[in-house]
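Below: protein 1.
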Amino acid sequence: ADFDAKKKRKVAEIYRALNSDPIDVAALRRMAISEGGLLTDEIRCKVWPKLLSVNTDDLPPLPGKELREDNKDYQQVLLDVRRSLRRFPPGMPDDQREGLQEELIDIILHVLKRNPQLHYYQGYHDIVVTFLLVVGDRLATALVEKLSTHHLRDFMDPTMDNTKHILNYLMPIIDQVNPEVHDFMQSAEVGTIFALSWLITWFGHVLSDFRHVVRLYDFFLACHPLMPIYFAAVIVLHRQQEVLECECDMASVHHLLSQIPQDLPYESLISKAGDLFVQFPPSELAKEAAQQQAERTAASTFKDFELASVQQRPDTVLRQRFRERPRGEERLRGEERTKSILTKPRTNRFVKLAVMGLTVALGAAALAVVKSALEWAPKFELQIFP
């Protein structure tokens, strides 16, 4: 009864925000982030366009089949969509699923045709199919186009340099909360490639329950484009005991982390990711992330992405620090630092939130959607990915 009452109150608050003049987008963001997210697909159809500033009264016409003619991406998109059977609800009739797959192909080709600066990547279809299943083809086309030119922009560059740069935020976030886990992963030389599919599909490719996928999409749509990497970090931190008990070698740690659990405490992790974003915003981590990128780029002569990802090396300072510090001392330091961060006075957090002009709902930070994705991300002349 209490849950139903909370749900009714939240639905009422969402519709109040939708019906206000002007629409209260800040309240909609808080609702998308707070416990339970946007609750139903019917509500998502109304709120997702507001979070992305898409005018639903002026939607583009449905894409036509002529887009498939002489399209350089068509064959790859076709292959990926044909392999996407598990992304559709189990028990869906074959003819209905096949019709949706055709719509999925058309949406992707339409966005790419209208935005020639964007490049298709494998995994993009996992994001598009989520929008298609929730809001239908015409609205999905508009939402995906806006998302592709903003939140997903860096994944759609000609090279994977910016994607790699975003992955480089993962280890600094982990280091802020649990240096022991960070140093263990550096010693194992596992790198960050295990989180690549999480990041570029917004976890759509790796989570089997569609309810969890759309809950995360509520969260990510209301937040800064880097929020998925913060969520990836809290997944690793949630599994810290498993990580530390693993064999300290690349293959073992990579295998463990790449097998994402399906029973994660999503609401708790969403709240922690929001907290970490506020405590350690990207601007504070950018220098360390850029340093990792610069060092690996300068040191690397690999041209093949897979080879580069497998043979990543921790920097010399971290490796030396891990070797020289006794294990007991390292564990104690890690516990003390974790305790310090997780037990910071709540007043400090609220002061910082007030300064940043943010609000808090049920333990998660409500973050404004940025107007352009990662314009501050440094560019490097030397590219390790062809």
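Below: protein 2.
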Amino acid sequence: RRERQRFVDKNGRCNVQHGNLGGESSRYLSDFFTTLVDLKWRWNLLIFLLTYTVAWLVMASMWWGIAYLRGDLQQAHGDTYSPCVANVYNFPSAFLFFVETEATIGYGHRYITERCPEGIVLFLFQSLLGSVVDAFLIGCMFIKMSQPKKRAETLMFSRAAVISQRDAKLCLMFRVGNLRNSHMVSAQIRCKLIKSRQTPEGEFLPLDQCELDVGFGTGADQLFLVSPLTICHEINSDSPFFCLSQRSLRSEQFEIVVILEGIVETTGMTCQARTSYTEDEVLWGHRFLPVMSLEDGFFRVDYSQFHATFEVPTPPYSVKE
């Protein structure tokens, strides 16, 4: 069958774009810090470089302007004449003085004299403004670098979901795994069924979301993700798949979105990994191959069999039937 449009890709990216915001786009500026963090790296680096470049040039121009208005650029800086900033004769020297002040490199050849009140005021303003700019931009870069988005790259989901019997009950199952030795603390998994439906009143819902029970009542949704786990959804009278059979599966159109959340043990930050399964990726009458084996004093996980399934005898009828 032809691959149809997904709501969530296999890598977890949501295929949703916001358009025609109109006047609502100003809301992004009201939360400018979060907007800046959400930008791509190339735009973050560009804003970072432009902000510092413009701020440095503007502040250096202000120091040069003070020296120009006081006539320090034409006077000889000696014992008989005390300038605002010693040894500032042109714009490059004013720029170097600003950089020395901003980077706290230390004063040697250029320094502020006590007979320049406007220079002292500008120095205080520069110190406050520099602290604000550093806190904003460096804080933004730090938060962006420490985001645990890449941690989701080492969380695996099986390529397909399976439907077979477990404990004499028909179940929908898929597998999750963690490739790193560092654990996901308080890991929790949720599933959403996205399917179009029409209400009894005639309203058409193109992307209706329905919760799939993966063990809320029993606590099975709270995972101890040390080794690969098989997540199980029991198909019963409360399940949206109550009327699903092997034959009707071929004509259905739905998408199962899986959301795995947890706290990264090394950083303490919350991480979320997502994937989805369409009806073409649900295998009726299959079961996952075992991946755990007992070695000499430890358990070994064979990830080469992580996605592998095999057929098992399964009734082709729905639970309702």
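The radius of gyration is 31 Å.
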